[in-house]
Amino acid sequence: MSATTVPANLYAAVQKRRNRGLTGLYLVVAAFLVVYAILFPGLLSVGGFSKFTQNWFPLALVTMAQALMMLNGGISLAIGPMVSLGAVIAAVTMGGPLGVLGGLIAVSVAGLFIGAVTGGIVAYLRLPAIIVTLAGSFIITGIALILLPRPGGYIPDWFSDLLAGHTPVAFGLLVLLLIGWKLYLATPLGLGIYAAGNNPVGAFRSGVPVERVKVFAFALSGLLAALAGLFVAAQTGSGDPVIGTPFTLNSIAGAVLGGVAFLGGKGTMRGVICGSLLLSVMINVMFFLGFPPVAQYVAQGLIIVGAVAIPQLTSQWRAKP
Amino acid sequence: MNALKSAFRNPPLLTLILVILVWIVASLTLRGFGAFGHLRYLLELSAVIGIVAAGQTLVILMGGIDLSVGAVITVTAILLPLISPDIDPTGLVGIVLALGIASSIGFLNGVGAAYLRVPPIIMTLAMATFLQGMLVIVAGGSAVSVTNATVIWLGQARPFGIPAGVLLWVAVSIVVLLIIHRMPAGARFLALGANPLATELSGVSVKRNTLLLFTLSGFFAGLAGILILGMNRQGYVGIGDPYLLTSIAAVVLGGTSILGGRGTYAGTIPGAILLVTTTALITVVNASPGWRSIMFGSLILALLLISGREARR
């Protein structure tokens, strides 16, 4: 099982295969980035880069959270509410006696706990993830509404400046997260995500603790979504019990653009990051081109269908003699 | 004991028993709950969810899911007043046009799922996003009032004391139950949900059935949209949003497997009533919106544990 004993050329071959479907995505993202940089040259300055990555960061987090669920063969409808709850907990606790560190811990614990409970229900009670998270979305929204019935709360200014100021801290955090993901994949629980998602029975027979893998993946997914909420709270300087709502759809869109398959076990985090980046850049470019905000939905719908349909169709054509 | 056991193996029956129990207990403990007018009102609300869930049941039986029903309802409710021609006093032309639009949206979903090979959940999600944007661009995003005579009759009239919407629901239920249980098409849908490859190899066209199912789902969502418009007398952006998740919940509460291949609309009917009753009971309890939301979610989860469990495979 250990990755270190695998010969390097095999590793390269495996990685090449995993990258194959993503070449088109990389090209599209690069093209959009070039267009954006031409429209908005400030992107290349430190401040512009920081602002851009800050808008992208929460989307990248929720897309990773959704991708974790989809690698498991499920889908989460509770990502948005989880973001809201993270934002609310941050805004409620950071002004109190707990302080910033306490708030950070509270948000993380809430995310891990709710994710683990959801994962436990899905894994041990055998309910489909889509329905459990559907019910969970109502419960989580309710908790957020009780904690903070209307937008408010308090985030210390220095904390907002640190995360969402004029320095690319968000980008650095994203890089750290990706390194963390690589390390997690080197553990049995991380590797198990792909095995259990692709073929749960086969994975179980070969000794993968399928249930535990699921619970851990769900917990991590909850943590990522809650941290996205924390970041959004830092960005806006306050908490809002419904601020996360659009993130549910966007997280699915980003993950799908990034090439994560719905049936589980197929997809890469680098693709997911690119998918969320594409979504984020696309929104920015359309804004700069002067499209009305709603046109963004139209384009988003078309791009999602295109992103899934085009590779399917080309592979079909290639298969024909 | 044996009867109890078989009831537990029969989710539609179980859900129906749950509804009856809840209604009896609530009528005895809450004043006004058991009044004819109130129960009739609950059925009227259930009719809307039940009709949306009719299409949703069919799609889920085939192993798909339709996340665009909310958007289709909104589109119908907003476009119908705009496209009903003034020269037609009955308003039937507008209804036919609106149902045509709703069905063609469903058809497009089917094209995406069948020919472009986009998974239904993504296709319908993308469609919902697309419609959300198109609607604001086309209709401008303001609320529209309805003057269409038939639509208002459908939403407000009570022939023989029964709301017209409930009568419509009964008609829809009969048709859908006949499709699923008495027609070859229903058998094909269930077979597709259980094992698409085997079904295709036995000569059933996956593509044609997918197209048919999504068109039907669009049609039923459109029908529900017209009913909602008649009850509200106004269409606005977002009017259909609450019905997306509730339609899925009603299907699952009725014991239909979200993975497809197993279930019946006979379960969705009590599922829809149960959902509406639950919401009504939560409203009676004087709680803040947050607690209401928590109770609703917990109740769905609890009901799922009873009736919606996937069989161990």
Share of residues in helices of chain A = over 70%
Strand order of the largest sheet of chain B: 1-2
- In the CATH scheme, the class of chain B would be Mainly Alpha
Major beta sheet of chain A, specifics? Answer: none
What are the secondary-structure elements of chain A, in order, as H or E? Answer: HHHHHHHHHHHHHH
| Gap between N and C termini of chain A | 39 Å
CATH topology of chain B: ABC transporter involved in vitamin B12 uptake, BtuC
Shape of chain B: globular
> What is the helical fraction of chain B, as a range of percent?
over 70%
Task: Specify the number of helices of chain B.
Answer: 14
The gyration radius over C-alpha positions of chain B equals 19 Å
The end-to-end distance of chain B, rounded to whole angstroms, is 26 Å
Hey, which two chains have the biggest interface? A-B, 47 and 46 residues
Strand content of chain B: under 5%
Secondary-structure arrangement, i.e. CATH architecture of chain B? Orthogonal Bundle
CATH fold topology of chain A: ABC transporter involved in vitamin B12 uptake, BtuC
Total domains of chain B? 1
Spatial shape of chain A: globular
Membrane topology (chain A): Multi-pass membrane protein
Organism (chain A): Nitratireductor aquimarinus
Subunit structure (chain A): The complex is composed of two ATP-binding proteins (LsrA), two transmembrane proteins (LsrC and LsrD) and a solute-binding protein (LsrB).
Subcellular location (chain A): Cell membrane
Explain this structure.
The complex is a heterodimer of chains A (321) and B (313). By secondary structure, chain A is mostly helical. Chain A has a single domain (45-308), classed as ABC transporter involved in vitamin B12 uptake, BtuC (Orthogonal Bundle), CATH 1.10.3470. Chain A contains 14 helices and no strands. With 313 residues, chain B is an all-alpha fold. Chain B has a single domain (35-307), classed as ABC transporter involved in vitamin B12 uptake, BtuC (Orthogonal Bundle). Helix content of chain B is 74%, strand content 1%. Chain B has helices at residues 2-8, 11-29, 36-61, 69-83, 92-114, 120-139, 149-156, 164-182, 184-194, 196-201, 206-232, 241-253, 265-284, 289-307; strands at 144-145, 234-235. Chain B has a two-stranded antiparallel ribbon. In chain B, helix 3 packs across helix 13, helix 4 (69-83) packs parallel to helix 6 (120-139) and helix 5 (92-114) crosses helix 6 (120-139). The model of chain B has no long low-confidence stretch (mean pLDDT 82). At the A-B interface, helix 6, helix 12 and helix 14 of A face helix 6, helix 12 and helix 14 of B.
